Amino acid sequence: xxxxxxxxxxxxxxxxxxxxxxxxxxxxxxxxxxxxxxxxxxxxxxxxxxxxxxxxxxxxxxxxxxxxxxxxxxxxxxxxxxxxxxxxxxxxxxxxxxxxxxxxxxxxxxxxxxxxxxxxxxxxxxxxxxxxxxxxxxxxxxxxxxxxxxxxxxxxxxxxxxxxxxxxxxxxxxxxxxxxxxxxxxxxxxxxxxxxxxxxxxxxxxxxxxxxxxxxxxxxxxxxxxxxxxx
Length: 231
Fold this sequence. Notes:
Blueprint: E1 7-8, E2 10-12, H1 22-25, E3 37-38, E4 46-51, E5 55-62, E6 73-81, E7 92-100, H2 109-120, E8 124-126, E9 130-131, H3 133-143, E10 148-157, H4 164-173, E11 177-180, E12 186-191, E13 193-195, E14 200-202, E15 212-214, E16 221-229
Parallel strand pairs: 1-16, 2-9, 2-15, 7-8
Antiparallel strand pairs: 3-4, 4-5, 5-6, 6-7, 8-16, 10-12, 10-16, 11-12, 13-14
């Protein structure tokens, strides 16, 4: 089995696969229990967080837009879920969806949503299993922020670590051992990343493990992106 047949990275998907924006956010409102806080950085915007045991949602609000007695207009949302299987680092969530209303894009607000997760909620963050071109650019920006560490990770099923080629891939990664998932069925290893022109790249000389692949590729070794705040 060739290496590219056993590796499954983050799917590259076209922008048209998820437009988000107003059509997606218009169904959300602000209740009396949603406690808005000023968005860090001194802008006019606010945010609030709804969290349960399985899901965390971060909403951005423009409090200056009030219609029919509302407490503002929801202009952005970042949804996160517990990764399955469990990730070996505590306090880790995986990105599900991130979107902004069209007229609020290009103001750095997507980065602000990620920043709330990392610096306010103090959570590690895994990239979603698929990313649009804009999503890949956002993670490229994350990796360039001082204090934010972004690395790649590879998840190996235990049985694959008896495979010579899989062990060769682990050796090529040259990164840190992150630990094992709950019940010990998977082992996680980190690898360093480099800043590419449009997306993050493997910083190592090997080309056998990359963060991204086309949508229809499949494999048994999964790779992804991990962001954590290290002030």
